[in-house]
Description:
Blueprint: E1 12-14, H1 35-39, H2 44-62, H3 68-85, E2 98-104, E3 122-131, H4 142-158, H5 160-163, E4 165-172, E5 182-188, H6 191-198, H7 201-213, E6 220-229, E7 238-241, E8 251-253, H8 265-283, E9 287-290, E10 293-295, H9 304-307, H10 310-325
Antiparallel strand pairs: 1-9, 2-7, 2-10, 3-5, 3-6, 4-5, 8-9
Helix pairs in contact: 4-7
Amino acid sequence: MAAAFQPLLPPHTIPPPNPLERKPVRFPRKNGSVSALLRDTISLTSWLLLGALLQGIGCLILGPRAILPTILILAYRLTDHLLMTFNLTRNRYLDNVLLTKGSPQLPFPNGTFGAEPSRDQIVVFHLGVRSHHPLGFLAPGMKGIVDSFDRMMREMHADPETAGLLGLSTFLKQEQAAGNELLSIFYLRDYKALHRFAYGDSHMKGVKYFRKITETCPHIGIFHETFVVPRGHWEAIYINSEPTGLGDTWFPVRSGDGREEEKSQVEVEVEVAEKEKQKDKEENGERVFIRPLVEAGTGILRSKTGRLSVERMEEMRQYDEMIGNMKI
């Protein structure tokens, strides 16, 4: 029997906000930054010209002293990065990097991993928006779109377990000098979760708002793409990378579920005690989330063929072919 996959990251426990009241909890996620979106509103040359204008105004008012803050900030940043480059100080850019080879695999409800790659289906949903306007995301109508998106996010993050949301990644396209499209990638448990999201109150309000402004704001473009990926038909690998994409998802887990194996009396007693402990935690509102990243440097996860379960896919193809050729 193949050994179970080994997780790369420990579980994350979220204490209850109020021990006397059990409420849905948000899974841990990084706060997004608006700096990239703001930077993309106008081109780099326009930002440089704007900076030059402000510096020129400063020099007119304060004289040569106005350039002193610029020199000091640049000197600090240059020194800081040179120290990191020559390993004299800690490289902050490696803080959240996993210096190994990892692959995302779906955990069992008890937080353990089996030995079967891509053992269940996943749903990937792309939602994108772009402003074809000189003002970019400051264009007319865009505030309503952004507000609608924020409402959707708040609704899903308020109770990700019920919503079926596993994670979300946001990317900014880089084809144009400015005004690129913004893409959000949702990872969901199943199609039912996506269906609930599509017909949820916040999403339907967003759809109605967009239909309302379509004629007056033709510069706003939106799109979505849906991928319902069957078991055994998806794979991913991350080498010396921060958790990202499917690897940056969170799965709610609990003790005492999963497959039963033959255990000694002592192990049974320990397991019963752990179940009682976990039950108390859940009654108090404490939740545990786990990331899907597991060690992929050895075993079946080393290759794309293994991660995709190609042998099982071939068996399914042959079976479908055989059934298709049968005369009924």
